[in-house]
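Fold it.
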Amino acid sequence: MTWRQDRLPELVRAISGRPRHEALRGHIIELLRSGFGASYEDIAHEVYLLDNTGRIDTLWGATVIELKSDLRREIGDVLARMPAYIADAAARTQSSAPVTGVATDGATFIAYGLRDGELHELARYTTDPERPDELMAWLEPLLSDRPDLIPAPRIVAQTFGRGSLTFAGARVVLDALWAELQFDPEVRLKRDLWDGLLREAYGEDVGGDALFLQHTYLVVVVKAIAARVLDLPVDDPEALLSGQALVDEGIVGAVEADFFDWPLKTPTGTDLVRQIATQVARFRLRDVEADVLKVLYESLVDPEERHDLGEYYTPDWLAGRIVAEAVNAPLTQRVIDPACGSGTFLFHAVRRLIAAGNAAGWPAPDILEACADKVRGLDVHPVAVTLARVTWLLALGELVLDRPARLTVPVFLGDALQSNLRRYLDRSDVLVEVPNEQPLQVPTGFAEDQALFEQGLDVLSQGLRDDATPEAVGRQLLRISGAAPADADALTGTFARLQALYRAGRNGIWVFIFRNLVRPVWLSRPEQRADVLVGNPPWIVYRHLSPAMKDRLREGLEGYGLWLGGNLASQQDICALFWARAAERYLSTGGRVAFVLPYAVLNAPVFAALRAGRMNEVQVGLTGAWALERVWPIFGAQSGSSTTSTCVLFGRRDFEGAPPQEIDRWEGHLSRRDAGEAEAARNLTHTRIPWPRPRTLIGESLYRSRFRNGATIYPRRFFIVEAEQTGRLGGRRDAPRMRGRAGILDKLPWTEVEPPRGPVETPFLRQLVLGESLAPYRLLETVTAVVPLDGARLLDAAGAASAGHRHLAAWLRDAEEKWSERSSKRADGRTAMTLLQRIDHMRNLSAQAGPPTIRVLYTKSGTRLSATTIIGGDTLVDHMAYWAPVRSQNEANYLTAILNSSIVLGKISEFQPHGQRDKRHFDNLVWTLPIPEYDADEALHRDLAAAAARAEAVAASVDLSQARHFTAKRRAIREALAQDGVAAEIEALVDALLPP
């Protein structure tokens, strides 16, 4: 057995338990010597600083290691001492590498660097005793140059992902490069064009500088992976990023010069690319797994950011099953994924074609030719396309060694919705956006004919190099066989615009842009269309789009007869437009489509026209569906709280048969989101069920408009508080000392922020009802919160100071400064919303201001609805509950009886999204039932109110002193209600109230 197999797991388990100082030192020395080949003589201990003001625990080369018993308590000491340790080590080291400081207590490793004399945290790692190789992978870039590493996806993610030392070092250099180059005309052009494509991908402005630098880093890593898969050298940064290294091997289209080669404009950037590529080359990438790119990408994007962007790629097992179901003749069917993301569907389609070719006895060159012709991808996301191209190449496996002299990877950057296509009476143009200028125009006469377009593009490129006149270029365009005079004239005008951009230094990217962005028009030619469309198109609801994208979505859906206005407008989804337009533009007659879509497509009113199949210019009849709402995890699972309900919809163009009465349902739990087919086969069960009952808004209750969500008090540690310990005299009664309460539900980056503390005037200390505060017919424990609500007016720090509330002003000033530093930023660097806007989003806080009244509250989520009443007081409601004022106590009792019944839960259960274990959110689903308003003249209504009053008395009498958790308290109350008999009485009354 080797040291890594035998001893390392035991060592990491010991380290993770925060051993004592000397024991930790011994473990770290063993790690350095046996894991990274350090000689005993090279490891220095208790090294006194040159000025004798302190001593370094352990020094090895350019790495300072500071050992602590518990970093949770001793982080202040690290922050105070580490700058001097790093500076001292830099003064004495013989290495050209920058000195890095690592503080650890075994359970946590934190890397630091000095930048302009100030200490900066580079990365941190929490030791997982069950994954010892991950600790080694995190430390590798710092402590080792060992080659031939195994490229397991998680190990690659630890080496290059968001928390890696490789990324941390690259980020420092990229920040400095960006400060130097951000106003260079060519660099700025590339960044702005990238930003425009992201707006197309996400429907809103998300492209900040930090994300551009992150994408730059990722693309360098992926392009290096592409080269090393083929055992190509990566020591020439320009050849690496331009793809010339692959072109020289006859592989075209896998890697291109794009938006992300801008670091090559400086020697420092060139060195950075070489350093990253060198780290990549340490892995044995000829053995790489295809999903390593997907895992790497998701490891680089913050989980909260991925959730906001909807960036969750299709699990491997699901993509494989969809391809197997939809592609029944892989040797003859052309497959297109019009939203290919990282290329998961393309991978499985290529592998399915290869398997069929081998089974049919095809020679390798014929199989490769078929792959290039039959499996194509398209995406508007520039980074996703880079990943997808390399994934397509990886899918070839050993077959790539038998490639022809020229192998073209058919994955293109472009907008499948063809939003840049403008139609006129006698012609149409593809518009290419130019930041801050009018768009460039490419006539579709050129764009639709690939050979014609390439000749035209060659003429334009040569004209730019020769500084030719537009007239000379126009004559050259007219000489191209097949070019229409009107199209040649239009392209001549485009050349004149290009030449002006070229002379202004805004060049270096246009050939790439033109060649890619016209591809969708070419792919929609009849002879290029697909027999099968597969994929997972973007899901972005109307209310989350930018104003311009909202107009575009509405116009597109209206064109297909899919737009529903009124209350349903906000629920319209871009995935519906994708379904219709992809079928119209890219699918041949009789062709199949299989898309991963929101579960709501199966039964929500907003998708009724899509299910009907007739969409004006195109008809797509439904042929089947898979319900996946009971499979966990699928999307967003890294957080462990995914509530995304999912389905797969199958259809056929020009199919006129009736939709199926039954669909397939898969259910079960997987160990990880991107599980393979073998695990899915073991853990998922299959049943046939009736097509889900369509939701209807006909019976919607009038109470829907009266109930609203509580306030999003976030970050919680800024507002939810507990009293601070005071001296013998106690604190001031009119302004007690409080401190923000840190909790297990806090999320990054706020877990790294010290909660505010200090006195707060008592009028601004309010009781807050959380979701867990609610039990059937009884209010449980509430929490104290600092709420800057002065009557009906919300106060920020300045407003509080102006009103004379100096303690509240100081508290808010501290919170606002921390919010400004850590909250999400717009592309221009401003905060996306102020702290006050955050806690009063949708007026969910200020709407609670007003005179005391009777209110009904119910839980937003859980396995059972819990509802109760509060009367008067200044209590406020958190966003995990819904609330409404009512006119009388009887109306309140009537509503709590209905809301606490299992009858209501059973009627809305099928519409609930699933969490990790159970169905979760209720939100306004209960009000889709025809629950009538309370009428005192109705005997049934009065009986419900009376029964609820009795239930409230039973709930109040339950001794909850032995039940610590809120779920146990709720259970105890429900058991008491059942034993009393009032629960059964209420169930019978609700059953009589609501139709079956």
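The chain has 37 helices and 35 strands.
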